[in-house]
User: Fold these one by one.
Assistant:
Number 1:
Amino acid sequence: MRLLSYPFRLTANGSIATVEQRSSQAAAEQIAMIVLTEKGERVMLPAFGIIDPSFDKLDAGEVALEVSLYGPKVTITNVEAYYQDDSTLTVDLEFTNGE
């Protein structure tokens, strides 16, 4: 089954971008949704997301916990966070699909 892709966007031909359910791409998009959402941001699900890492380090354990609670069935093998410049935090997250 095809799902709407995250972030929502249009393809080059003007159709809505989709991704195959249970694919590695779908899992990566679901994980990105968790990492890019700040705890408390979603009113109906305030525990979803991670604590904003702007003034502290990204907590790899928190990411793994949130993915296990709200994300796809994956095994996270590595999480690295580093600043490309003074204002851009880059997160490299590796996982193996569990399904």
Number 2:
Amino acid sequence: MTAGLIARKRDATARRDSLAALALALLAIERLTGRAPALGALSFPAQGGKPFLPGGPRFSWSHCTTRVACIACLHADPGLDLETLPQEAPADAVQRLRNWTATEAVLKAAGLGLRDAARVSLAANLDTGAVGDGRYFLHPLELPGC
């Protein structure tokens, strides 16, 4: 599936955010490898799943209402999730959102979709997560508005 086909499936805001995330991924890949990948070199699995560049580096992207971000790595499968945190959210809602972003980051690192969320187990302090045979180290990113 090409980036153009992905972009047509969403509303204008989601399309813009997805294309910005794609641009960040291309920039990250170029910075890690010293060469710009051809857009056509990226693979987008037909059944969803994690986009990838054959031969690496590996990357993950996310966007919320106020931010777009990408992470790339030469030797590991990263996972990234951003969510908008409502102002003055109660502590229990903040914790649920932290748990959800940790779960989604593990799913993305594992190359799995949301349908597998129930399979993710998280450490109480959210420093690790696991799904199947994979164990993932988690690091929270505190961004204003996210």
Number 3:
Amino acid sequence: MDLKDGASIVADLTTIGRKSGLPRTVELRFIYHQGNFYASSSRVKGKHWCENLLNNPAVVISVEGKKIACVARRVTDEKLRKEILAARSSSR
């Protein structure tokens, strides 16, 4: 997989359901930035995929026929958050 920094891709995110304990998959748009995949949401509460990954950060991203095991984390660095949101806006 040859992704350039700032690339926007649509991929499947599989989390583990915080209530069911079963795999849950959702299609999301990700930004690839400095070797990492970033998804964003305007809110966390009520977004099942967000709540699931905060409860259990072990996730799988399926992109271009490959499955990539990842550990999700919430972006708390304001500078990084702005970089990701700017990349997302410019890739539309």
Number 4:
Amino acid sequence: MEAKVLSVISKPMVERIIEATCLYFGITEDVLKQKNAGRDIVYYRKACWTIIREETSMSYGRIAARFGFTDHKNVMVFVDEMQAHRKIYPPTSHDLSKIKTISLNIDAVINREQ
């Protein structure tokens, strides 16, 4: 009987969430980090920030810095907004759930696409 080798999670969770967000919405990390972005990109970033905050111990300030922003207050406002929207708008809840699932299975998703 052949032993199965399980893949090791090689990336930090923050990087996996960013990559999952980009895969889910079909964008690049550079687009996700744009400061003067359109409404869609801002929504994508809000989703990413919310999941990072929920799934890691990263502070609001560190999340802002990771995306090239200096003010952590925007991160706080956006995360609170997305958490409230999740309860009201099923599409928001669906997006957040799918991105979380992809981030937990990112290696399988990338290997399937290749």
